């Protein structure tokens, strides 16, 4: 029985379908133009071997979290505007998202770029965004490990 469990676990890992939230390397987030666009992009990814792991939908954002950590979302216009109309984001895991965002913003400013920390893009979620002109149409965000995130 142990051998069968190990074999199943190994095959899941080899096919990119780790059933556990470990390790959590963060995410790469892309915004779709509509809920329908989000669904068709998720279907295209599925047809090419990148499967949806689960959805995390809130009042502000519809999210499909894929097995490889990619997130395809559709934010409300208000959330999209709050994040500076960034259509993509690099999500990083941090024990202290607010401090990590402040440090990243300072590093960006020291290098001559803008770096603004945004803490309330989605009230109730401990995600700290860094809006910057160092990334065209994109931003950074810092969040706790997936196991430390609140339920939507």
Radius of gyration: 17 Å
What separation lies between the terminal Cα atoms? 36 Å
SSE pattern, N- to C-terminal: HEHEEEHEHEEE
* Shape, per Cα inertia axes: globular
Task: Give a quick precis of the structure.
The chain is of the alpha+beta class.
Structure description:
The chain has a single domain, classed as 2,3-Dihydroxybiphenyl 1,2-Dioxygenase, domain 1 (Roll). The protein is globular and about 55 Å long. Helix content is about 30%, strand content about 25%. The chain has 4 helices and 8 strands. The mean pLDDT is about 90. The chain has an 8-stranded mixed sheet. With about 150 residues, the chain is α+β, with helices and mostly antiparallel strands. A hairpin with a 6-residue loop joins strand 7 (about 130) and strand 8.
Q: What's the structural blueprint in terms of helices and strands?
A:
Layout (H helix, E strand, L loop, with lengths): L1 H13 L12 E5 L3 H13 L4 E4 L5 E6 L3 E6 L1 H6 L5 E6 L3 H14 L5 E3 L9 E4 L6 E6 L9
Parallel strand pairs: 1-4, 5-8
Antiparallel strand pairs: 1-5, 2-3, 3-4, 6-7, 7-8
């Amino acid at each position: 029985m142990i051998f069968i469990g190990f074999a199943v676990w190994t095959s899941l890992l080899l096919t990119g379908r780790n059933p556990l939230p470990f390790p959590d390397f963060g995410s790469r987030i892309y915004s779709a133009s509509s809920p329908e666009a989000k669904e068709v992009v998720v279907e295209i990814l599925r047809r090419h071997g990148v499967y949806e792991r689960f959805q995390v939908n809130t009042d502000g954002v519809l999210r499909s979290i894929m097995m490889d950590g990619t997130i395809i979302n559709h934010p409300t216009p208000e959330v999209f505007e709050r994040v500076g109309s960034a259509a993509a984001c690099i999500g990083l895991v941090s024990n202290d998202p607010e401090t990590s965002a402040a440090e990243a913003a300072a590093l960006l400013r020291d290098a001559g770029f803008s770096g603004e920390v945004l803490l309330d893009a989605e009230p109730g979620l401990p995600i700290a965004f860094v809006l910057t002109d160092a990334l065209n149409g994109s931003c950074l965000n810092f969040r706790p490990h997936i196991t430390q995130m609140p339920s939507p």
